[in-house]
Design a protein that fits this description.
The complex is a heterodimer of chains A (about 260) and B (about 270). By secondary structure, chain A is of the alpha/beta class. Chain A has a domain at about 1-105 and about 180-260: Rossmann fold, CATH 3.40.50. Helix content of chain A is about 40%, strand content about 25%. In chain A, the strands form two sheets. In chain A, strands 6-7-8-3-9-10 form a six-stranded mixed sheet, with helices on both faces. A four-stranded antiparallel sheet of chain A has the order 2-1-4-5, covered by helices on one side. In chain A, a hairpin with a 2-residue loop joins strand 1 and strand 2. In chain A, helix 4 runs parallel beside helix 6 (about 165-175). Chain A starts with a helix and ends with a helix. Chain B is mainly alpha-helical and about 270 residues long. Chain B has one domain. Chain B has eight helices and no strands. Chain B has helices spanning about 5-45, 50-90, 95-135, 135-145, 150-185, 190-200, 205-230, 235-265. In chain B, helix 5 (about 150-185) packs across helix 7. Classes of the chains: A alpha/beta (about 260), B mainly alpha (about 270). The interface of A and B includes residues 109, 110, 125 and 175 of A. The structure holds adenosine-5'-triphosphate and magnesium ion (MG). Adenosine-5'-triphosphate binds near residues 65 and 109 of chain A.
Chain lengths: ~260, ~270
């Protein structure tokens, strides 16, 4: 299974190369964020090119979640330039910000399913709110399609409280994929899952990226997931990017701190 | 450490502490006003969430009918039983229906309904939105370009604003029934006679201000419940804090509004 995944990834890369020069869809310059007297982000710079999957590694509490929350305007940064699709998000008004958000999918660390709604309603809710003129049958078909994508078609009528952590993550993923985002921000999609499920999710991420040509930032502590899904990795320490490269390059790094992630 | 400070320093510290508490209070009050303003603005923005509003109305109305009915009945009953001896002394037993109707419609019905709703609905909204906040469900709505304020807050506040006046009217009605039952312990009156006696004492100035008051009660209960939940901090214990402080703040607000309303109707 692993082999096919790697092949799938290589194919994806080749396809992207054929598209010619890749323009960045996300660009972050000098991002600072401080909570009370706790400096979390201390001048982060990074870029994500179209179709690329950037993995962010860093110790727990290093501000990885804060970083991607800044990108969708959930947290307002103290300083720094954040560009998504070439537009500075701190300068967008509410309407423009919402237009941008429709193109960005966000998978929360704890899935954040609406727990008063069943799985079906969780998936139907964003469609009902955002795609008002879509016919009902089309919505139903879409719901079934994404559930099939994440391999949970039979959970359609369950309540989120009945789902396991891994199932909830996959439904969360389905809920964001149903809106066909151009950029995906994954916050620890595989944490707390067994190796098998974790592989399945990595595989799913690769497949979805190929299927819908998604650019993404993926936060993880799970090295196999990083190895399978990453085109490039950045490492965050004390609020700054300290290392950057492909999995292979970083694995062979001399830096003790960098190496500590790989073993 | 505290011991070694001289009294003046200590007094100064206490003043600073009090001042920062006051600052915190003012800050909170300002936030609440801004929240109310936003809620009011969002009411008029399209599209309106009919479905969710109706669902919330159902939740607010249906979930409290039994409790409010029972309390209303007991209130009417007890009020009658307790005022009867005093009025009987003056031979004014025939005044009981009128007295009951005025006190129930003007004060007891609205306030009892509001207080029960604070405990029942305000706390539920605080806890519900609080846990949605803590588990990032509100953030999830926001990042998928759905306005959580319009979907969650406006619908709930409208539901309480519409339903609490109705519940208060219902409580008044049931309280009359309780009073009628209590009347019949010692005397015997027909229900018709009792109601006619009760209604003849009610004036326009008893009914309308009471109704306006309940609308305000509904508005603040929904608003404070949602505000507390929406602004819950991180961590699970803040859900409990949100629910608790929703009840406390909303009850307090109900009494303050009640007092102001009494002053204003007095001037009319
Ligand atoms: N809304 C907030 N208010 C105050 N502090 C916050 C907030 N969000 C995050 N923090 C703080 O910022 C720091 C970084 O948090 P963040 O959630 O980004 O860590 P992380 O790198 O995602 O860690 P993990 O891998 O455990 O998820 C933490 O110390 C946290 O307490
Ligand atoms: Mg995190």
């Amino acid at each position: 299974m692993e082999e096919t995944m790697i092949i799938a990834k290589e194919e994806g890369k080749r396809e992207r190369l054929e598209h010619g020069p890749e323009e960045p869809v996300i660009r972050i310059r000098g991002l600072y964020k401080c909570f009370k007297d706790h400096q979390v982000l201390n001048g982060v710079d990074l870029e994500v090119k179209k179709g690329e999957n950037l993995v962010v590694l860093g110790k727990s509490g290093s501000g990885k979640s804060v970083l991607i929350k800044c990108l969708v305007g959930l947290i307002y940064p103290d300083a720094g330039d954040l560009e998504v699709f070439g537009r500075r998000i701190t300068e967008l008004n509410e309407e423009e910000l919402n237009e941008m958000r429709k193109k960005v999918g966000f998978l929360f660390q704890n899935a954040a399913l609406y727990d008063s709604m069943s799985v079906r309603e969780n998936l139907a809710f964003p469609l009902r709110q955002l795609k008002k003129d879509m016919p009902r049958a089309k919505k139903e078909a879409l719901i079934e399609e994404v559930l099939d994508d994440v391999g949970l078609s039979d959970a359609i009528d369950q309540m989120p409280s009945k789902l396991s952590g891994g199932q909830a993550k996959r439904i969360g993923l389905a809920r964001t994929l149903i809106l066909r985002p151009e950029i995906m921000l994954y916050d620890e999609p595989t944490t707390g899952l067994d190796t098998g499920t974790s592989h399945e999710i990595s595989d799913l991420i690769i497949r979805m990226r190929k299927k819908y040509n998604i650019s993404s930032i993926l936060i993880t502590h799970d090295m196999p997931c990083a190895r399978l899904t990453s085109d490039r990795i950045v490492m965050l320490k004390e609020g700054v990017v300290v290392a950057e490269g492909t999995y292979k390059e970083l694995e062979g790094s001399d830096d003790e701190w960098v190496k500590s992630f790989f073993y | 450490m505290q011991q070694s400070l001289n009294p003046i320093r200590r007094a100064k510290m206490r003043v600073t502490q009090k001042r920062s508490e006051l600052k915190q209070f003012l800050y909170e009050a300002g936030n609440l006003v801004a929240f109310a303003g936003q809620t009011f603005r969002e009411i008029f923005r399209r599209p309106f969430e009919w479905r969710e509003t109706l669902y919330q109305c159902y939740q607010v109305g249906y979930k409290s009918t039994f409790l409010i009915g029972l309390t209303g009945f007991i209130m009417g009953l007890v009020l009658t039983i307790q005022t009867r001896p005093s009025l009987a002394k003056f031979g004014a037993v025939s005044m009981i229906p009128g007295m009951i109707s005025v006190s129930v419609v003007r004060e007891i019905g609205p306030v009892i309904t509001a207080i029960i709703c604070c405990g029942n609905i305000g706390s539920r909204m605080g806890a519900e939105l609080g846990s949605m906040k803590v588990s990032e469900q509100i953030d999830a709505m926001e990042v998928s370009a759905i306005n959580p304020h319009r979907y969650l807050v406006v619908t709930r506040v409208l539901a309480t604003t519409l339903m609490i006046p109705l519940l208060a009217i219902y409580a008044d009605g049931i309280a009359f029934c309780g009073a009628y039952v209590a009347m019949n312990i010692h005397d015997s009156t027909t229900f018709r006679h009792f109601m006619v006696a009760a209604m003849t004492h009610l004036e326009f100035l008893d009914i309308v201000p009471a109704l306006v008051k309940t609308v305000l009660f509904g508005w603040v209960i929904g608003l404070i419940g949602c505000y507390k939940g929406y602004h819950a901090r991180r961590g699970t214990e803040s859900v409990g804090i949100a629910a608790n402080s929703a009840v406390v703040t909303a009850s307090l607000a109900v009494f303050v509004i009640d007092m102001l309303a009494a002053q204003i109707t007095d001037l009319l």
